[in-house]
Amino acid sequence: MRRRLLIVIMTMIAAGFAAPAMGQEPAPSDDQVNEIAGDLYCPVCPNTPLDVCETLACSEWREQIREQIASGMSESEITDYFVEQYGERVLAKPRRSGFSLVLWILPLVGVGVGLIALGGVLRTWRREQEPEAANTADDSAVSAEMRQRIEEELRNLS
Amino acid sequence: MIAEIGFVALSVAFALTVYATAVSAWGGWREQPVWVQSARSAVLLTAGLLTLSVGTLIYSLQISDFSIAYVAENSNLAMPSYLRVSALWGGQAGSLLFWAWLMSCFVAAVLVGKWDRDRDLMPYFISVATLTTGFFIGVTLFISNPFTRLWLVPGADELTIALFSPAGAMLYSLPDGNGLNPLLRHFGMIFHPPTTYLGFTGFVVPYAFAMSALISGRARDDRWIRTSRRWTLVAWVFLSVGLLLGGRWAYDVLGWGGFWGWDPVENAMLLPWLTGTAFLHSVMITERRGMLKVWSVLLIVLTYSLALFGTFITRSGVISSVHAFGTTALGPAFFIFIGVTFLATMGLLVKRLELMRSDHEMESFLSREAAFLLQNVVFLAITFVVFLGTVFPLLSELFTGDKVTVGPPYFKATAGPLFAVLLLLMGVAPLIAWRKQVAARLGDQLRIPVVASVVLTAIWGYMYESPWVAYPALWLVVFATLAILVEFWKGIRSRTSQGENPVAAFNSLITRNRRRYGGYFVHLAVIMIGMGFIGEAFFQQQTQGTLAQGESLHMAGYTVRFDNLRQYIGPDGRQVTDATTSVLKDGQLLATLHPRQDFFAEHGQRVTAPDAYSTFGGDVYVILIGWDNIGTGGSTFKVYYNPLIAWTWIGAFVLIGGTLVAMWPQAAGRTQRTYVLKPVSQGPRLGTGGAAS
Predict the structure, then answer these.
(1) Which among A34, A103, A128 has the least Cβ separation from residue B361?
(2) Which of B319, B636, B691 sits opposite A157 (nearest CB)?
(3) A2-18 helix and A75-86 helix, angle to the nearest 10 degrees
(4) How many domains is chain B partitioned into structurally?
(5) Do both B219 and B334 map to the same domain?
(6) For position B673, what pLDDT does the model report?
(7) Does residue B572 register a pLDDT over 80?
(8) Which of A93, A102, A127 would best serve as a mutation to test chain B binding (most B beta carbons within 10 A)?
C-alpha cells in the first residue's frame, strides 16, 4: 500500500510539472472540484468519497482535479484518467460493463422473479379456492334463524 | 486476580451452555422434563456467570489494569469513567463478550417469564438459543479473549500476549493504555453498539421459538409467534434505534455531510432490519388468517442469519478485502457457523413443510393479505439489492481480481424506487380489508387523501423550489401521512359522534387497539425518517470556500461568516482547532457555530467535528476543513444545507413511542371481548334473562 502511495504521489508531482501554466483564468472553485470528486472514491482509504477524505494524498488528488479542470479536461475525461490510474474502485458507481454489469442486472432479475413468484402464488391460491367457493359461501352465510338468535342475545346483552 | 475470575466464569459459562444445549434436546426428545429443568438452571446460571465476567472486565477497565491486553488497547488513564464502560464494546474481544452476555440475558429472561405457559416449546427453545449463545462464548473464549495478559519474557524484545504465564515470564503492566479510538468518543457511539447488539441478539428469541416449533412439530399453530411477538418487537425497536444512533454519530463525527453513507458496515446492520420488518408484518397474516406459515419461519431464519452475518462482516475485516478473511480464526468460525445453522434450518423447514399448510387461502388479489405479501416481496427485494451491493466488491475481487466500490449512487438507484413502493403501500394497505376488498369502496376511501396530497405536494414543492424528479417522493410522503391521519380521524369521529370528547376519544381509540394504532405511529415515524433520506437525495446543497476573517459563504438563503479561529489543548490531550462562524439570514444572526478539528497525536488521528444550525426545514451544517495561519490567514469551510434531516431524529422518538404503544399489554378489562353464542340446548327460546354473564 505504502509503495503504491509513493508511486501515486510521484506521478502527481510529475503531472504537476507537466500542467500548463495557469493564471490566465481564475482557478476552478472548490465546488467545481467537489462536484467531480464527489463521484470518485479515495483510492487508498476504503469506502471514503474523495471529496470528503481528509488524508494528504486525497487533498493532493483534489488539487490534481483542479489543475485538470483548469487545463480544460471534461468531467468524463478526468474520471477516465483516475480509473486508468487507480482502477475501477475509484468509481462510486460501478460501470455498466464487464463483470460489474452483473451488479446492475441482478436487481432487475430479482425483482422480476419476485413479482412473478408473487403472481404465481396468488393465482394458485385463487384456483385452489374457487371450487370451494360455493361451500365457503354457505359456511359464512348465517342462517335466518341464527341471525335472529344473535340479534336477540345482543339486545339482551346491553 | 480479578481478570482470572472473569476468565473462569467465562469458561464455566461455556461448559454450561454446551451442557444445556445437549441436555435440553435430550429432555425434549425423551420427554423427560427433569433434564429440561436442569438445562433451565444452567441457562440462568450462565447469565449470572457472564454478568460476573462482564463485571470483572468493566472493573478492570475502571481501575486501569494495563496488564490486561484488552484494557491497555482500549482505554487509558485520561478517559472518564463512562468512556471506560463503553470501552467494553470498543474493541473486538470485549464486544463479543458483551454480545454473548446480552444474548444470555435475553434467553434467561424468556425462561423466567414464559416457563410455565409454554412448557412444550421450551426444550428445543433452550437448546437452539444456548447453541448460539455457546458459539459466541466459545469465540470469546478461544479466539478473541478479553482476559489475556501482557507478559515479559526475559530476553525478549516484545511483550507476549497470553492467558497463562509463559515459562519464566513476568506479568507486565503498561504505564498507560492506548485509549479508545477517538472516533468512538461520542454519545452516539456510547449508545449505538449496545442498542444495535440488543437488536441483533434479541432476534435469537423468535428464531429459537420458531425452531422449537419446527422441531417439536408444533409449527401448525401460531403459538410460537404469539409467544415471541413482544421479544421480536423489543429486538426490532432496539435495532431501529441502533441504526439511527449510528446515523447520528456519522452525522456528528464523520463530517461528510450526511447520516447514511451506504457503507458495508451500515448495510450489514440494515439487512436484518429489513427482513425483521418483513417478518413483523408477515406474522400478522399468520396470526390472523393462518397463512404464510413457512414464509414467516423463513423470514425469521433470514433475519437471524443476517444478524450473524452483520457481526461477521464488521468483525472479520472481510469487507476491506477478501484477503483479510483468513487472518484470524474469527472469520472462518463465523462463516462456518452461519452456513451450518442456515442449512440445518432450511433442511428442517423442508422436512416440516407438510405441517405448515395454510388454514385459509387467499381470496382476492385486492385484500390485506395480498398487500402484505407484496410488501414482503418488496422488503426482500431491498434486502437482495443491499446484500448484493455490499458483497459485490468481494465477488468482484474473487472472480476478476479487481476491486470495485459500490457507493451510494448504486443503492439510491436500486433501493430508492423500492422504498417508494413501500411508502405507497404504507398509505394504501391499511385501508384494504382482510380477505376481500371491493375496489370501488377503496377508491372512495382514497379520494380525500389523494386529492389533498396532490394539492399539498404542489404547494410544498413550489415553496422548496423542488426539481421535478423530487415531486413523486414528496407526494408519497404527503399521501402516506394523510392516509394514516385519516385513519386516526375516522376512528376519533366515530367515537365523538357517540358523545365522547376528542381527547378521550383519541385515548380510548389507541388503548383499545394498541397494536393497530401503535403500528400507525411507527408508520408515521418511518415516513419522518424517510424525509431525511429524501431531503438528502433531492435537495442537499453544498459549497466550499476558503475565507479570510469576516468573509462569508452563501447558500440556500443563508450566509455563513467566518469570525475567528483558535487552538487549544483539550483535557484528554487532543489538539483542538476551533472556528467561530455565524449563520445569518437576511442580515439577522441566527446562530454561532463552532466547527472543529481535533487531532489526537497518540493515535495520529484527526476527527472533524461539524456543527449545525438545525430547523424543521433543514440544517446548515458547517465543517472546518483546513486553515493556514491562526486568525490572519484563510480557513477553508464546507457548508451543507441538509433539508428535512431534523425529521429523521424526531422520527426516532416517534418510532420508540409507537412501538411502546404496540407492545404495552392491553389494560385489564379493556381487552376486546369475544362473545360466544349460547348453546341451543339451554331452552327453546334464548335470551330470557341476563345473557351477558
Answers:
(1) A128
(2) B691
(3) 140
(4) 4
(5) yes
(6) 47
(7) no
(8) A93
